[in-house]
């Protein structure tokens, strides 16, 4: 039935333009993945080939004790090697993590009309976006994901314009994680041998979004992607995933610096948050830190939710490699640009691994 109602353009209209999302399509009853969602073989996720990322989560409470230096070392090592790590004792209350996952299920469980009503609310610029896939108009195959994106301006507007089922918990999540994000940025800059000045750190944390991702059950997840290969554009992403699994990160080099190209699953750890280095930190560090290429596979049995907070620079912030590092390296691997331009380019293209960085890369001979 679903395939009869939804073929060709009518599927795109129903899912994307009319705002029913992947969830609306799955709710019609779907036994087969529609062809618009079938990825080319090289983009499909082979779970059997992925390794598991068994590194224990980093205990951030130890930053305040005798093991401070060891913990800093662990953070820096992870930011250089994989660009991904998990943290516990992060300062975000554990009960809040459960409430956030519940709120995401409540939001996406609403009728399409209710979800659409959340869209584009705000005083002047839109603070809330409800959508599906990433840039559907540009994608060869669509992503098996619906999302809600909430931009933070201030508390009053968040409580006024963010959707009811999520606004309070999302705001608390944002507030309780800000200290964590700031501390990580300060550590990562300091470890580059540069004293982080307050205005620089504030500039790198100028804008924040809380997103809620919903990956409905998929009849054949091995043919689709929940999110295609990409790195996040900002400074740091804090990500809450539920217990279902399906988040994969690419390890580009092994410990000996050889090309590895191995995908690793980031296993769900109850109470932990995933930290993900964005393109901005790779650029700022002149390539010392690595933004993580990652992707998501949906599940055939359960809907998955994840709740990232993207901390990105102020749109007017000038971003480029830190001058002290360029001096030391004798070469800048990235040019300087205004972050708004990086963001516009990021959202103008479908996910394609770390291609987003080409916008800033200087290809030295
Ligand atoms: O769902 C996830 O675990 C990751 C989502 C993600 O990569 C993103 O929203 O940028
Ligand atoms: Fe991401």
Automatic annotation (TrEMBL):
<feature type="compositionally biased region" description="Basic and acidic residues">
    <location>
        <begin position="43"/>
        <end position="52"/>
    </location>
</feature>
<comment type="similarity">
    <text>Belongs to the iron/ascorbate-dependent oxidoreductase family.</text>
</comment>
<dbReference type="InterPro" id="IPR005123">
    <property type="entry name" value="Oxoglu/Fe-dep_dioxygenase_dom"/>
</dbReference>
<dbReference type="GO" id="GO:0009805">
    <property type="term" value="P:coumarin biosynthetic process"/>
</dbReference>
<dbReference type="Pfam" id="PF14226">
    <property type="entry name" value="DIOX_N"/>
</dbReference>
<keyword id="KW-0408">Iron</keyword>
<dbReference type="InterPro" id="IPR027443">
    <property type="entry name" value="IPNS-like_sf"/>
</dbReference>
<keyword id="KW-0479">Metal-binding</keyword>
<keyword id="KW-0223">Dioxygenase</keyword>
<dbReference type="GO" id="GO:0046872">
    <property type="term" value="F:metal ion binding"/>
</dbReference>
<dbReference type="InterPro" id="IPR026992">
    <property type="entry name" value="DIOX_N"/>
</dbReference>
<keyword id="KW-0560">Oxidoreductase</keyword>
<protein>
    <submittedName>
        <fullName>Scopoletin 8-hydroxylase</fullName>
    </submittedName>
</protein>
<dbReference type="Pfam" id="PF03171">
    <property type="entry name" value="2OG-FeII_Oxy"/>
</dbReference>
<feature type="domain" description="Fe2OG dioxygenase">
    <location>
        <begin position="200"/>
        <end position="313"/>
    </location>
</feature>
<dbReference type="GO" id="GO:0051213">
    <property type="term" value="F:dioxygenase activity"/>
</dbReference>
<dbReference type="InterPro" id="IPR044861">
    <property type="entry name" value="IPNS-like_FE2OG_OXY"/>
</dbReference>
<feature type="region of interest" description="Disordered">
    <location>
        <begin position="37"/>
        <end position="63"/>
    </location>
</feature>
